Amino acid sequence: MTAPVETIWFLNGPNANLYGLDANKTYGSESFPVLQARCEAKAASLGLGLKFVQSNWEGQLVDWIQQARGESKGLIINAAGLTYSSVPILDALLAFPGRIIEVHMSNIWRREPFRHHSYISKAADGVIAGLGGAGYALAIEAMAQLIAQAD
Fold first, then answer.
1. 85, CA 20 to 30 Å: which among 45, 51, 59, 103?
2. Residue 24 confidence (pLDDT) above 70
3. What pLDDT shows up at residue 99?
4. CB-based contact 41:106 (threshold 8 Å)
């Protein structure tokens, strides 16, 4: 078996580890571990490795973005609630030399007005929102295409 050509990073922000536990099903019914396994399988089917991580801490997400600088050509991020408030995450993303896709489980433009502005979008090549777990898989497919186009 050959090693993956490229490993992409998929960062998840605060409370993403609670997916599937929300009584309102805002983020779907799929648990975070099931979503992670599905994303890893999707990446593998495309010949990619996937580093799929989650943190409730802004600084940890910034550290991972900085670490990815030397390890990956692509980064997918769902900064969750930090999407609407984190200049440090934006600054780290702006320093990332590869491709960036912003993803959200829910359609942020159909939610509360404060969610309509994303700091992350300024650094992103594209945004996928409102498709639940399917959006995660689409983000991985899109990243594979972006990386292939860059090579």
1. 51
2. no
3. 97
4. no
**In the numeric block, which tokens belong to residue 45?**
């089917």
Known active-site residue 104: yes
Q: Is 84 exposed, middle or buried (0-12, 13-18, 19+ CB in 10 A)?
A: middle
Question: Do the beta carbons of residue 140 and residue 48 sit within 8 Å?
Answer: yes
Q: Is 27 a catalytic residue?
A: yes
| Active-site annotation holder among 104, 117, 119, 136 | 104
Report helix angle 87-94 to 58-68, nearest 10.
Answer: 0
Structure tokens at 43: 């990446």
Distance CA 60, CA 44 (A): 26
Locate tokens 């992350």: which residue? 120
Cα distance between residue 85 and residue 90, in whole Å: 9
| Nearest C-alpha neighbor of 127 from the set 151, 97, 93, 95 | 93
Residues of the binding site: 78, 91, 105-106, 115
| Average pLDDT rounded to a whole number, residues 79-92 | 93
> pLDDT value at position 17?
85
